[in-house]
Write a structure and sequence with these properties.
It contains 41 helices and 31 strands. With 1332 residues, the protein is of the alpha+beta class. It starts with a helix and ends with a strand. The radius of gyration is 37 Å and the shape is elongated. α30 crosses α31. Helix content is 36%, strand content 13%.
C-alpha cells in the first residue's frame, strides 16, 4: 500500500506541474465517427447506430436521392427547425448528385465507434498502459514512464488541468443522447419514408380548390394549409398547386454529426423532404409563390401522416416560423414499438428543394423579389424598390441542408475533437439564452429574439476557424485567397472551445464581414461570381457568409443579438483566462444565465398589440411580428447609440417555440417582449443629445424626423456651434437623471411604434427599486433642512466634512497645543455606501411635531485625527488615553468658539469602556453641527500600537496583561489601520464605478430587511467588498454594471454561488483602479499568499463562529507577507466576518431571491413592484418568538422603514410648511430635544439583550427602521431531556418535568420572554411566541 500511495502521489505531482508547463507537442486523437452509417440489419454491430442498412444518409444527401428501407440512426438533433433552416450550402445540383446508381452509396466514415475511447490517454493509476496493454501488478506501482509523463504534459496543455478534462468528459457524456434508446425512432422513420413515398400525386389545382383537393384525398384529415399571415395567396391567383412524392428523404441536422445535445424540452431529429423540381416554375421565387406551393406540399404530408394507420398515435403539429413551417412528430407515449419518448426527442420534417431550382443570382441579397403589395399578383401594384435579403435567403436555405451537413461531416472527420467542442459551444450558448428550447422546471427561459438557430451557427463558426477565411479585403489580397486557419485539427475540445470564444470576443463583425472558405472538394463551390459580396455588406450589419457564398448565417440575427453573443464571449474568456485556482467550469457550462435581470443594466417589458404591415419590411421578414421586433431594435439602437453598448430584444422561449395544431388558422404573435439595455456608464445619463450642424440640411431633417419637432430644437453651444439637439430637462434629484434613458425609450417607442403598443405598455424593472433607499418626501420636507436627493446626494455631508476639517486646521495653537496633520474619514456616509444618504437633520425642531421621535435619527460619521509628533505625548498607555481625552476637550472648546451657537459637543465613551486605568482606545468627541450633521472624532497615536505589541510579545507579562493588551491591540488595528484603508479602497472604487454606491446601498438594504444587522450578523465592510467584487473580478471593467439594480442582482448571484466554506473571496481592488476599461481586474500573484492565511483562519476557528467569510483585497497581500499577524493582517471585513449560521442564512436567502428573479414571467404588465416587495419582505414565520416595538419611539422608523405607516408621524405634524406654527402646545417627545448622534433605541435594546441572553437566544433585527425583533431559542437548551442542573448554569432554568427536585432542567422560555418584555417597557408593545 505504501508503494501504491507513492505511485499515486508521483503522478498527481507530475500532473500539477504539467498543468502549468509551457507549450508542448499536441497529441493526435483518433478520428471519432460523426456520421451515422446505413447498413443492413445483419451488419448492426455498432451499438450507436440506430439505422443499419447498406446505405449512408450522408451519401444519400450528396446523391440527392431517397433513402431506402432501414435508415440509419434517427438522430436526436439538438437543433430545432432553425438549425436546419440556417444550414446553407452548395453550388449547383451537380455537386450533390451521384454519378452511379442510387443504390450504390459510399460510406463517408469507416471508423468504428468502439475505438473512440482510445483517444483518452494517460489516466493515472489505470489498469492499462497508454498503448492499451494490460499492466502487471508491478507495473501499476512503477514510476511514470516517459510516455505517461508526455501524456500528462499534454493534458495540462490541452485542457488546462486534468480536473477540467474530467469535467468536460463527464459533461459531454451527460448531454449526449443515448442511441440505444432510438430503436422506436428508427421504426418511426422507416414507416415515415414508406408513407411519404407512397402518397399518390395530386394534380395541379387552383389555390381556391387546394383545400378541397386535400380533403378529397384524405377525408379523415382536418388540416389547414399554413400559408402564413404576411402574404396569403388570393383565391384567383394565376398559378396552380400540386403534389408529387418527394425526390429524396434526407436525415439532416446535428444527429448525423453526433453533436446533438440534450435540452430540457427534448431533442429534434430533423428530416428533409426534397420536393420535386417539376412542381415549380421559373418565377416561383417571386411574390411568395414558392412558399405558397411549399405550404400546400407540407399540408398534404401532414394530412397523410395524421390519417395513417401505420403511424397511429403519433402526434402531428406545425412548428417553425410562418414562412417556413415544419411538421413536428411527437411520440405516442403508449409504450408501443413507436414510442420513442424515452429518447426525449421530436421528429421535425422540413421541406427542401434542389440546389439548381432557381438561379442564385436572382436570390442575391440586393435583389427584390416581392414586387407588389398584394404579394401574389404581379400585375397589380407598383414595384417595391427595397431589396428583400431575408426573403431571398429563406428560399436558398431550403436547398442547403445537405451541403452543410457534408461540409460539417468532413470537418468532424478531419478534427477528432470537433464534435465534443461543438457540444461545449451548444451547452454554453443554451445556458445564455441562445438557441431554441424551453425549460421544464416551471422557470421562464428568455430567448434572444432571432437566435433560434444559434447552435448551428456556432458549429459553423467553429468549422470556419478550422478551415480559414476567404479574404474579401483587396488590401489583404486578391479575392478568393484563403486566410490561414486560426485553429488546428490536433487541438483538444477545450482548446477549440477556448479559441472559438476568443474569436467571438475579439472579432469586429460591424467592420469586418466574414466569408467562410469554400470547399469544392466537398461540393461547396463559391457562388461569389453570381452573388456579389458587396450585397451582403450593403444589406446586413453583421455578416457571416456560408462556404457557398449564398446566404448570411446571421440573416435572422439582429445586431443586438450578435453584440450580446460577443459580450457573453468576452465575459467567458475572462473566466477562461483566469489563472487562479478556480476553473469557473460551473459558471461557464452548468449555471443557467438566460435571465436578463442578471445580464443587462436595465430591462423593459413591452406589451404589443397584433398588427399587420403592408410595407416592404414586413414582406422581407418571416412575419409581421418579426418585422416589428426588428424595427423596434433599429429604432432603439438609433436613439441610444451613444448611451448603450447594445440593445437586445428578448422573448419567452416557450412562446417562441409553441406548436400549432394542424387545423390552426392563425399564427400567434408575441404579446409581450423584453428589451435589454447595457449602458455605457454615466454616458447613459447625458442630458443633451447632440445632433448635426445647421448647415447639414439632410442630416438635420433626418434628426428632426426621428426625434420629433416638439423636442428637436436648434441651439447655440459655448464653442460657437449651432446644431440641432434634444435636451432632456431633469430636476435636482439624482433619480430623475438616472431615468433619462427610460424617457428616451418611451418617447421614441411611442413616436415610431405607437400603433403596436398596448396602452401603457412599457414598464422598466429599475423603476421598482426607486425609493428603496430614499426617505419619504413628507419626512424630508418636515424633518430635514434640505433634501439630499435634490442637493447632490452625498455632496451635502461631504461638504460638511470638508468644512469641519478646515475649521479644525484653523484652530489657534494656544488653544490646541498640537497641529493637526490629517483628518481621515472612516464612515460609509463619507464614501457613498451608506444605505440612506445622510440628510441634514433640523436639530432645532427635535421633539416637536415637525421632527417627531420617529424621524429623529442623526447618523454619526467617524473621523480619525492624527496630530504632529511631539515629546509632550506620554510613553504610558493609561496616560495616552488621558492625553487623548484632554486633547479632545481642548478641540471641543476651540470649535465652540469658531462655530458658535448651534454646535453641540460632548466627550463620549464606548459602551464597553473600562474607565480609569484603561489601556484601550475608548474615548471620542461627538459633534453635532448647525448644518445638521454629526461627526465622531477619534485620535490616532502610533506609539500606542508599539506599546501594545510589546506587552503582547513580552513573555514575562501576566496572562491578564497580555489578554487586555491583545484586546486593545485588536481594537486599535480595526479602528486606525484597517478602517481607514478600507475606506480609501471603497471610496476609490465608488469614484471609478458610479453604480457601485447604489449597488452597495441596495445590497445593505436587502440584507438588513431580512433582519441581519451589522453588529450581530453581517458587517458593513463585508457587504461593501462583496458588492465591489461584482465590478472588479474577472470582468472587463468597461462592462461592469452601470445601474444599481444590475449590480444588486449580480451581487445576489455571486453570493448565491460562493462556496465560502472552501474558498476566500479575492477582490482585485488595486488592479481595478489601475487597469483600463478593456482589462479585467485580477488579483495577480495573490492567490498563494492568501490561501495560507485562509487555512490558518479555518484552523483557528473550525466552527466558523467568527470568520465564515474570508474576504481579501489584492493590495493586502504585501502587508500580510511582511507582517507576522497571519490572517489578522487582512481586512476589517474578514476580522468581523459573519458567523456560519448568518452566512448560511444569507446565502439561502440569496439563492431564493435569484430563483424568484429568474422565475418571474413578466406578466402583470411588466410591473416589478410585486417582485421588489417580495425580495425585500422578510419572512417572520421561522422565528420562535417576536418582539413588536413601538414605532413612535424608533428614531429610524419614519425615514427608513420599508413599509412605514405615515399616520404615525403625519398625525402630529403641523403641516408641510416649516414656518407654520404648531397647533399643539407642549413637548411631544419621549427622547427629548437634545440631539443624540448615532442613538437608536431599538438597536441599543437588542444589543443589551444579546449581552444578557447570549447563551439562551439569538436575535434578528432590521436596523433600518424595523419595528419587529425576531428571536430563536438555543436548541441545545430546548431539548426534551434537558441538561443536568449545576450551580451558575448560565440561563433561566426550570425542571424538565415541571416539578421541583428533578436533576435535569431546561430553558424557562416563558420567564425569559417576561423578562424581555419587562426590560423593554415603553419600547416593546407585545410579545408573540410560536409555542403559544
Amino acid at each position: 500500500m505504501a508503494a501504491g500511495t507513492k505511485r499515486k502521489h508521483a503522478i498527481a505531482s507530475t500532473a500539477d506541474q504539467t498543468a502549468s508547463a509551457g507549450p508542448s507537442r499536441l497529441s493526435k486523437r483518433p478520428a471519432r465517427p460523426v456520421a451515422a452509417d446505413l447498413m443492413d440489419g445483419s451488419d448492426d454491430d455498432d451499438g450507436d447506430d440506430d439505422f443499419d442498412d447498406g446505405e449512408d444518409l450522408l451519401a444519400a444527401a450528396q446523391a440527392g436521392t431517397a433513402v431506402s428501407e432501414g435508415e440509419e440512426e434517427g438522430s436526436d438533433d439538438d437543433e430545432d427547425e432553425n438549425d436546419e433552416d440556417m444550414s446553407e450550402g452548395g453550388a449547383g445540383a451537380s455537386a450533390y448528385e451521384s454519378e452511379g446508381d442510387e443504390d450504390d452509396f459510399e460510406l463517408l466514415d469507416g471508423e468504428d465507434d468502439a475505438e473512440q475511447d482510445d483517444e483518452e490517454s494517460a489516466v493515472a493509476g489505470g489498469s492499462k498502459s497508454l498503448n492499451g496493454k494490460k499492466k502487471s501488478k508491478v507495473d501499476l506501482y512503477a514510476l511514470p514512464t516517459n510516455e505517461e509523463l508526455q501524456a500528462l504534459t499534454e493534458v495540462g496543455e490541452q485542457f488546462k488541468s486534468g480536473l477540467v478534462k474530467m469535467k468536460i468528459e463527464e459533461m459531454v457524456s451527460s448531454v449526449t443522447p443515448k442511441h440505444s434508446k432510438a430503436k422506436p425512432l428508427e421504426a418511426i422513420l422507416h414507416r415515415l419514408r414508406s408513407l411519404v413515398e407512397s402518397i399518390e400525386p395530386i394534380p395541379a389545382t387552383s389555390v381556391k380548390e387546394a383545400a378541397k383537393a386535400i380533403k378529397k384525398r384524405f377525408p379523415a384529415s382536418n388540416v389547414t394549409i399554413p400559408y402564413g399571415s404576411v402574404a396569403p395567396p388570393k383565391k384567383d391567383a394565376q398559378y396552380s398547386l400540386a403534389f408529387e412524392p418527394p425526390a429524396a428523404l434526407q436525415l439532416v441536422g446535428s444527429w448525423p454529426l453526433k453533436v446533438a445535445a440534450k435540452r430540457p424540452s427534448g431533442l429534434d431529429v430533423d428530416v428533409a423532404l426534397v420536393m420535386p423540381s417539376s412542381l415549380f416554375q421559373e418565377k416561383d421565387h417571386m411574390n411568395y409563390r414558392y412558399f405558397h406551393k411549399r405550404a400546400f406540399y407540407l399540408a398534404v404530408v401532414a394530412a397523410a401522416i395524421s390519417t395513417s394507420e401505420e403511424l397511429r398515435g403519433v402526434q402531428v403539429t406545425f412548428g417553425g416560423d410562418e414562412r417556413r413551417p415544419t411538421l413536428v412528430l411527437s411520440p405516442p407515449k403508449d409504450k408501443s414499438g413507436l414510442d420513442f419518448s424515452k429518447l426525449k426527442a421530436e421528429v421535425r420534417i422540413h421541406l427542401a428543394h434542389q440546389p439548381d431550382l432557381f438561379p442564385p443570382a436572382r436570390l442575391a441579397p440586393g435583389r427584390n423579389n416581392v414586387r407588389s403589395a398584394s404579394a401574389d399578383d404581379e400585375a397589380s401594384g407598383s414595384a417595391l424598390a427595397a431589396p428583400t435579403p431575408r426573403y431571398n435567403a429563406s428560399i436558398l436555405l431550403d436547398s442547403l441542408r445537405a451541403p452543410h451537413l457534408v461540409y460539417l461531416h468532413a470537418t468532424a472527420k478531419a478534427c477528432p475533437a470537433f464534435t465534443d467542442a461543438a457540444l461545449l459551444l451548444r451547452v454554453w450558448a443554451f445556458q445564455r439564452g441562445f438557441g431554441s428550447g424551453h425549460t421544464t422546471d416551471g422557470s421562464v427561459r428568455r430567448l434572444v429574439a432571432g437566435t433560434e438557430g444559434a447552435r448551428f451557427v456556432l458549429t459553423m463558426v467553429l468549422a470556419h476557424l478550422l478551415h480559414g477565411e476567404e479574404l474579401s479585403d483587396r488590401k489583404a489580397g486578391p479575392l478568393g485567397v484563403a486566410a490561414r486557419a486560426k485553429l488546428f485539427n490536433t487541438f483538444s475540445s477545450y482548446q477549440l472551445f477556448r479559441g472559438c470564444i476568443d474569436w467571438l470576443a475579439t472579432h469586429d463583425f460591424a467592420s469586418h464581414p466574414v466569408f467562410m472558405k469554400s470547399a469544392p472538394e466537398h461540393g461547396l463551390v463559391s457562388r461569389s461570381d453570381r452573388i456579389p459580396r458587396e450585397d451582403f455588406t450593403a444589406q446586413y450589419e453583421r455578416v457571416l457568409v456560408d462556404p457557398t457564398g449564398s446566404v448570411n448565417l446571421l440573416d435572422e440575427w439582429t445586431p443586438g443579438a450578435v453584440d450580446l453573443l460577443q459580450h457573453e464571449a468576452r465575459l467567458t474568456f475572462a473566466m477562461l483566462d483566469d489563472e487562479g485556482p478556480t476553473d469557473h467550469f460551473s459558471d461557464i457550462f452548468l449555471r443557467a444565465k438566460s435571465c436578463p435581470s442578471f445580464t443587462f443594466d436595465e430591462l423593459a417589458s413591452v406589451r404589443l398589440e397584433s398588427s399587420h404591415s403592408e410595407d416592404a419590411a414586413a414582406f422581407d421578414h418571416a412575419s409581421a411580428a418579426a418585422a416589428t421586433l426588428a424595427a423596434v431594435q433599429t429604432t432603439l439602437r438609433r436613439a441610444l447609440a451613444t448611451r448603450c453598448h447594445f440593445t437586445t430584444v428578448l422573448q419567452s422561449a416557450e412562446e417562441s417555440g409553441k406548436l400549432r395544431t394542424l387545423n390552426s388558422k392563425s399564427f400567434s404573435a408575441p404579446s409581450q417582449i423584453e428589451l435589454g439595455f447595457l449602458y455605457r456608464g454615466t454616458q447613459a445619463q447625458r442630458i443633451v443629445e447632440h445632433g448635426p450642424l445647421q448647415e447639414d440640411v439632410a442630416a438635420s431633417e433626418e434628426f428632426r424626423q426621428f426625434w420629433g419637432e416638439e423636442v428637436a430644437e436648434l441651439r447655440r453651444f459655448k464653442d460657437g456651434r449651432i446644431s440641432y439637439s434634444v435636451v432632456w430637462e431633469v430636476g435636482p434629484r439624482q433619480a430623475e437623471r438616472a431615468g433619462i434613458p427610460r424617457r428616451i425609450v418611451r418617447h421614441v417607442m411611442q413616436r415610431h411604434h405607437g400603433d403596436v403598443l398596448a396602452g401603457d405598455a412599457i414598464r422598466f424593472e429599475g423603476g421598482g427599486f426607486t425609493g428603496l433607499v430614499e426617505a419619504p418626501e413628507s419626512v424630508t420636507k418636515a424633518a430635514y433642512l434640505a433634501s439630499p436627493e435634490e442637493r447632490g446626494g452625498f455632496q451635502l455631508v461631504q461638504s460638511a466634512f470638508d468644512t469641519l476639517v478646515k475649521q479644525l486646521r484653523s484652530l489657534p495653537s494656544d488653544e490646541v497645543p498640537l497641529s493637526l496633520i490629517t483628518a481621515t474619514p472612516c464612515s460609509p456616509g463619507l464614501r457613498g455606501t451608506s444605505t440612506f444618504i445622510p440628510a441634514p437633520l433640523d436639530v432645532a425642531a427635535l421633539g416637536t411635531p415637525r421632527t417627531p421621535d420617529c424621524a429623529s435619527w442623526l447618523p454619526v460619521h467617524d473621523v480619525i485625527l492624527s496630530f504632529e509628533a511631539s515629546g509632550k505625548w506620554p510613553d504610558d498607555l493609561e496616560a495616552i488615553q488621558g492625553m487623548k481625552m484632554a486633547l479632545l476637550e481642548r478641540v471641543a472648546a476651540a470649535l465652540q468658539t469658531v462655530i458658535g451657537e448651534g454646535m453641540h459637543a460632548r466627550i463620549a465613551f464606548d459602551a464597553d469602556a473600562v474607565g480609569a486605568g484603561s489601556i484601550q482606545d475608548e474615548v471620542s468627541l461627538e459633534l453635532t453641527l448647525p448644518s445638521g450633521f454629526a461627526f465622531r472624532l477619534r485620535i490616532q497615536h502610533d506609539r500606542e500600537r508599539v506599546l501594545l505589541e510589546r506587552i503582547v510579545a513580552d513573555r514575562f507579562a501576566t496572562p491578564a496583561q497580555r489578554s487586555d493588551a491583545t484586546r486593545a491591540l485588536t481594537r486599535h488595528r480595526q479602528r486606525f489601520t484597517h478602517a481607514p484603508k478600507h475606506h480609501a479602497r471603497v471610496a476609490a472604487l465608488v469614484h471609478r464605478f458610479p453604480a457601485l454606491g447604489e449597488t452597495t446601498r441596495l445590497l445593505k438594504r436587502w440584507v438588513r430587511a431580512h433582519q441581519l444587522d451589522e453588529e450581530g450578523h453581517v458587517p458593513n465592510e463585508a457587504l461593501e467588498l462583496l458588492a465591489a467584487s461584482v465590478f472588479v473580478n474577472d470582468t472587463p471593467l468597461g462592462l461592469a454594471p452601470s445601474t444599481g439594480q444590475a449590480g444588486f442582482t449580480a451581487a445576489l448571484r455571486r453570493l448565491a454561488g460562493w462556496d465560502w466554506k472552501a474558498e476566500p473571496l479575492l477582490v482585485a481592488v488595486q488592479a481595478a483602479i489601475l487597469a483600463s476599461d478593456q482589462q479585467a481586474g485580477k488579483a495577480e500573484n495573490a492567490t498563494q499568499s492568501q490561501h495560507q492565511p485562509f487555512k490558518e483562519a479555518r484552523t483557528s476557528d473550525p466552527s466558523l463562529s467568527r470568520r465564515a467569510w474570508f474576504i481579501v483585497t489584492d493590495d493586502e497581500e504585501e502587508e500580510a507577507e511582511a507582517s507576522d499577524e497571519g490572517s489578522d493582517a487582512f481586512s476589517l471585513a474578514t476580522m468581523r466576518g459573519p458567523a456560519a449560521a448568518s452566512a448560511h442564512a444569507l446565502q439561502t436567502l440569496a439563492r431564493g431571491a435569484c430563483g424568484l428573479i429568474a422565475a418571474r414571467d413578466g406578466q402583470e404588465e411588466g410591473d416589478t413592484m410585486a417582485l421588489v416587495k417580495a425580495l425585500f419582505k422578510p419572512s417572520l414565520g421561522h422565528f420562535d418568538f417576536l418582539l413588536y416595538l413601538n414605532p413612535a419611539v424608533l428614531s429610524r422608523y419614519a425615514p427608513q422603514n420599508i413599509s412605514a405607516d405615515a399616520s404615525i408621524w403625519s398625525s402630529s405634524s403641523s403641516g408641510s410648511f416649516k414656518n407654520k406654527p404648531s397647533k399643539k402646545a407642549g413637548p411631544v417627545t419621549q427622547l427629548g430635544r437634545t440631539p443624540r448622534p448615532g442613538f437608536d433605541a431599538a438597536a441599543s435594546f437588542v444589543q443589551l439583550l444579546r449581552g444578557l441572553y447570549s447563551d439562551s437566544l439569538r436575535l434578528y433585527y432590521d436596523v433600518n427602521g424595523g419595528d419587529v425583533v425576531g428571536g430563536l431559542w438555543n436548541p441545545a437548551l430546548s431539548q426534551r431531556e434537558g441538561k443536568r442542573f449545576k450551580p451558575r448554569i448560565g440561563f433561566n432554568a426550570m425542571p424538565v418535568d415541571g416539578k421541583e427536585g428533578g436533576e435535569n432542567v431546561k430553558l424557562n422560555k416563558e420567564a425569559v420572554l417576561a423578562e424581555l418584555e419587562r426590560l423593554g417597557e415603553g419600547l416593546v408593545v407585545r410579545v408573540e411566541s410560536k409555542e403559544k
